[in-house]
Design brief:
Number of domains: 2
Structural class: alpha+beta
Number of strands: 12
Shape: elongated
Strand content: 15-25%
Radius of gyration: 31 Å
Strand order of the largest sheet: 3-4-9-6-8-7
Oligomer: single chain
Length: 403
């Protein structure tokens, strides 16, 4: 019986192919928007989570001001003295700081502006490298005895910044000071990082004329200590050293888990906004299906009368129309999913090749596609409820006499 319902519904859809295709457009656009936007949003979330995993769960970040926005110079900057205070806090295993500024870079008679970071040359460099995902692809990393040496990002090494590749052994000028290239970093996925240069911290202080300032201080808690407790102790010691009261700090202390939670909230909001935008398209598609089904009821009034005259029940008529609207929704969902996957993958490829970033990666899970198809089928069925109910309630005599 059910198979007969489906065959009957499919024959009615084929009978009005052009109208059916136009009706599908709304569902196709809606599902394509849902799949492409959410897959990119999920991909971004996965990429951000991977970055936080590189930092580890026992990492603590200290910044001036109220966080990342405080690094613009509005608050009292962090200093070497702050770093020494942090190193003495009970439970701190390792602590180090770095500075990073946009500087003038000269190479092969070209001038560009890019980020230059001054990294410490002691063992604390490991925390910063883990946080940023820095690893050497060619050559070597900076050594403790290095002064005017630099490691360049992959975009510099691959001629994505200058017309010529910056190779190991080449000379580049940073703010007028000549540096020798000793290595290049593996791709990180962020254009700012991949076009940056790393130099020794003390040399960076000299070049930028910042004898004591630090942009960020990174610390790692010892095994057996709770990272949140160590972070609170750091905040208390810094507050005491700076002579500040609780709640009036001009610095921020955050653990990697807290940063991850904050980023997660922001990404969730973005995903909800994307879902809301796509839902509008789906609503329009649902209205289109409803309009088509109402038109179908009017066109097939006599046909409905014949069906009832030969014994079809109200429930039979309703099921036929619901199946028909559900099929329209499902077919639209299949086409929409295909287009959505194609769009999201196209954005991923474009971001990788043109923007040199791996943050915009399409994350397409099978259960997500199945859910989208089920949702499109349900939207179709819901849109067909009122027209199906109207069709089922037609009286056989009136339906047969309808012109």
């Amino acid at each position: 019986m059910i198979s007969d319902y489906f065959r009957f519904a499919l024959s009615n859809i084929k009978r009005n192919e052009v109208r059916s295709l136009l009706t599908l457009a709304g569902i196709v656009i809606g599902i394509a928007a849902v799949v492409s936007l959410i897959s990119l949003g999920q991909g971004l979330q996965e990429a951000v989570n991977e970055q936080f995993e590189l930092m580890g769960t026992n990492t603590i970040m200290v910044m001036s001001g109220s966080g990342l926005t405080g690094m613009a110079g509005a608050a009292t900057p962090l200093t070497q003295s702050d770093l020494e205070v942090i190193r003495k806090v009970k439970g701190v295993d390792l602590a180090g700081g770095f500075i990073s500024k946009i500087a003038k870079i000269e190479f092969n008679d070209e001038i560009k502006y890019s980020w230059v970071s001054g990294f410490p040359q002691d063992e604390s460099r490991r925390i910063i490298e883990d946080m940023g995902g820095y690893s050497i692809e060619k050559g070597r990393d900076l050594k403790e005895a290095d002064k005017y040496k630099t490691v360049v990002g992959c975009m510099l090494a691959n001629a994505d910044v200058f017309e010529k590749e910056v190779n190991i052994g080449d000379k580049v000028k940073i703010e007028g000071q000549t540096f020798k290239v000793v290595g290049s970093y593996e791709p990180i996925g962020n254009p700012d990082d991949d076009s940056a240069l790393g130099i020794p911290l003390e040399t960076a202080r000299e070049v930028f004329d910042e004898p004591d300032e630090l942009m960020v201080i990174m610390a790692r808690s010892k095994d057996g200590y709770t990272t949140d407790d160590v972070a609170e102790d750091i905040k208390e010691k810094l507050r005491k050293d700076r002579g500040q009261k609780e709640g009036e700090e001009d610095f921020t202390v955050q653990t990697s888990e807290q940063l991850k939670e904050t980023a997660g909230v922001v990404l969730d909001v973005i995903n909800y906004v994307l879902i809301g935008i796509a839902a509008i398209s789906l609503l329009v598609g649902g209205v289109g299906i409803m309009n088509t089904m109402y038109t179908s009821v009017l066109e097939r009034t006599r046909e409905i009368g014949v069906m009832k005259a030969i014994g079809a029940k109200d429930s039979d008529i309703m099921v036929v129309f619901l199946i028909e609207s559900g099929i329209l929704g499902l077919v639209g969902g299949i086409i929409g999913c295909s287009i959505g996957i194609g769009l999201s993958k196209s954005v991923e490829i474009l971001a990788t090749e043109e923007l040199n970033t791996t943050l915009l990666t399409a994350y397409i899970a099978p259960e997500f596609i199945i859910g989208a198809l089920m949702f499109s089928f349900i939207v179709g069925c819901i849109s067909g409820i009122l027209p199906a109910r109207q069709a089922s309630q037609l009286k056989p005599v009136d339906a047969l006499r309808y012109e």
